[in-house]
Amino acid sequence: ELFTERGLLASRVTYERGQLLLLESYWDDGKLRFSEEIGSERRVARQFARDGVLRKQTERRNGQRVQEQEYSERGTLVAEKRWSASAGLEREDEWYLNGQPKRSITYEAGGGRTERSFHDNGKPSWEGRFVLQDRSRSVPTGAHKTFDDSGRLRIETIHDDKGRPIRERSWDDAGRVQRDDEVFEDGSRKAYGTRP
User: Fold this and answer.
1) How confident is the model at residue 132, as a pLDDT?
2) ∠118-124-127 over CA atoms, to 5°?
3) pTM of the model
4) Cα-based angle 169, 101, 164 (whole degrees, multiple of 5)
5) Cα–Cα distance between 144 and 168 in angstroms, integer?
6) Residue 151: count of CB within 10 angstroms of its CB
7) Distance between CA atoms of 51 and 37, rounded to whole angstroms?
8) Residue 54: which pLDDT band, with cuts at 50, 70 and 90?
């Protein structure tokens, strides 16, 4: 154990039979600031705010990060990432402070990903898929959709395999198609299915 000049506990290290089990550090008022539980295959690190609220937790198994969680000032979960040993980062999720989902990203082997965002009432706001075109650039592919705060589809843009929009549609409040356009490379458009 280490103490501050004022005699307060600053940090503690716990061993059992010569094996490190727990690391802890404390704020200057004696509240827990950081802890790390250490097992033979699993480590869990936690960071706390001055008021004692858990703000971040990271779990590792066999040296590989498997989960990371972030918490708000009130202690509610606001972000989470998950990894797998074989594929790397698999999923990211975020939540509003009211507990509703805010955003999610699911990663695919080969670099693709599907993204979704939500309105603060939990209804979908947007969704789309991206593929890795080269090592550092991803492009949209397939249908990308935008929804109103009731979860009704309002806009859909369809992309080709190069990431270019090739068709755009929009709907009114009653769900009727307002616009259905074919989109060309130069950005020009015409009503879908009509001849030039």
Assistant:
1) 84
2) 90
3) 0.84
4) 30
5) 10
6) 13
7) 21
8) very high
96 closest CA partner among 114, 122, 115: 122
Structure tokens at 11: 């940090």
Q: How many residues does the chain have?
A: 196
Cα 102 from chain centroid? 9
Determine whether 74 is exposed, middle or buried from the number of CB atoms within 10 Å of its CB (0-12, 13-18, 19+). exposed
| C-alpha to C-alpha distance for 61 and 58, rounded to whole angstroms | 10
Cβ-Cβ contacts under 8 Å for 50 (sequence gap 6 or more): 27, 29, 31, 33
> Are 164 and 186 a contacting pair, CB within 8 Å?
no
One-letter amino acid at 144 equals H
Asked if 22 and 36 touch (Cβ cutoff 8 Å), the reply is yes
Closest by CA to 42, choosing from 57, 24, 25, 26, is: 57
Q: How far apart are the first and last CA of the chain?
A: 81
d(CA 91, CA 83): 7
Higher-confidence residue of 10 and 153: namely 153
Strands 101-107 and 124-132: unpaired
